[in-house]
Amino acid sequence: MRLFPKEIDFFEIFDKTSLNITKAASRLVDLMEIFDDTEARAKEIHEIEQDSDMLTHDIMKKLNKTFITPIDREDLYSLASRMDDVIDLIWAVADRIAVFKLKEPMREAIKMSKDILTTAEVMHKAVKKLKEKNYAHVQEYCIEINRLENTVDRGFRDALGKLFDDVKDPILIIKWKEIYEHLEDASDRCEDVANILEAIVLKYA
Amino acid sequence: MRLFPKEIDFFEIFDKTSLNITKAASRLVDLMEIFDDTEARAKEIHEIEQDSDMLTHDIMKKLNKTFITPIDREDLYSLASRMDDVIDLIWAVADRIAVFKLKEPMREAIKMSKDILTTAEVMHKAVKKLKEKNYAHVQEYCIEINRLENTVDRGFRDALGKLFDDVKDPILIIKWKEIYEHLEDASDRCEDVANILEAIVLKYA
Amino acid sequence: MRLFPKEIDFFEIFDKTSLNITKAASRLVDLMEIFDDTEARAKEIHEIEQDSDMLTHDIMKKLNKTFITPIDREDLYSLASRMDDVIDLIWAVADRIAVFKLKEPMREAIKMSKDILTTAEVMHKAVKKLKEKNYAHVQEYCIEINRLENTVDRGFRDALGKLFDDVKDPILIIKWKEIYEHLEDASDRCEDVANILEAIVLKYA
């Protein structure tokens, strides 16, 4: 049984995109832990994001020009959009740290970033397994992504509580609140990716 | 004339979900009015949200495994997603009140919560009428939901204006602004539900 | 070769909606530059938004009642929704200026508003060319919208950086940050419109 027979190269591109997400998340963890030269580090992540943008554009063009059923197209389109969102948000986090001229990391932001890196790695594995038509493993990885999203969600609410408990400078609160929200959004979009992967497997496997 | 003949049990699940939304909204009004033990009250709403999560997961699985036309699937999928958003946002409001350790309610937040409860009750009726194939009533209730969304929208902008007029502590402004935004979002997602219900009726009735 | 033969009047409505977006954006530039009587000016933009709401409602009803393929419907539905978002956001910007009782403009907000007006004008041209089946020009305009979105995005990050560099009052930061975010969102939704227009052209031209 073949899945999307004519569009197997789509999964090549998704593989590259999810590898890019892993790279960007890994650079974000470095930035969060080392917290020096934040502008240069944000620029590096921006380059990965730009690279992914071209992959997304490529996949959208192929999707629009390839004959596939509406329902396949819709799934692949959503998959590409949500992956694009994840990398955009990872870049937004790095960018805000530079734009806000933040000088010191927050333990909670490091933890959230690490959990997002783990999520990205599992997502990359899930995409690879889908490409290899190893559907049982796709589902396992998707469950793990959902579990990780719960972890990030709890981490986000802890971070928010601690931010308002410990920090008294409202401007610093505004800055970190936005960063935490982008991290939480990135994790939510990873969960969306997992849900789409699960839907694809349920429909076609 | 039958609507979604093979998937009539979908509407059973939507009925349960919209009942859950009503329950959660009712608990939120209690929390807003009484404003004691906010953490325990938020936890109760969280349990309703968790319960709904399982219903949503169940419906998504059934949608992916059932043979239905892409367009029906798309509508039912959107319906489940938007209802899930509503209950998530109601929980988020309750959760923020606890996380932000707010000690006193805001009159405007009570009013917005009550309007959302009314919206939820009308939404529940609309779903019931759809299940019973009483399409004229579905449309009536949808118009009422749209009207209520306008009320919440005006309430939101009043609340925002009053917040910046009356409160001088920027941290308190940040906290309540987020709560008002989540309430407004919950109301917007209810309007999305009404629009999807209307679309279903227009297409199939 | 005909595009959406039976629904050619859809593009009449899109033409009117995109003209409305241009009008609203133009009024927003006036508000930002002159910055007097902000409440009355916001009300004028609200009237344009209300007018567009009726157009959107009309198109949604026609979409649901017209027999078209799911994939066409999906594209037209998205187009109408994203255009509706653009005008909602332009109105939200004007409304916040009034609700927040802001007394002085920000140079960066004027610049972002002007770029959004330019985007709206190009978008209107793109919709006109689609109506005329002049597909090559549609694509050209879409590329220009994407370029403008990059400009607004850079403008947004500059504005954010300058806001935190120059303004010391946290409440003023909260207010302008929200306005900048709505402007950036409006630009993002214009990019969505461009992407949908491009997809339509690629699929059917």
TrEMBL record, chains A, B, C:
<dbReference type="InterPro" id="IPR052912">
    <property type="entry name" value="UPF0111_domain"/>
</dbReference>
<dbReference type="InterPro" id="IPR038078">
    <property type="entry name" value="PhoU-like_sf"/>
</dbReference>
<dbReference type="Pfam" id="PF01865">
    <property type="entry name" value="PhoU_div"/>
</dbReference>
<protein>
    <submittedName>
        <fullName>Putative phosphate transport regulator</fullName>
    </submittedName>
</protein>
<comment type="similarity">
    <text>Belongs to the UPF0111 family.</text>
</comment>
<dbReference type="InterPro" id="IPR018445">
    <property type="entry name" value="Put_Phosphate_transp_reg"/>
</dbReference>
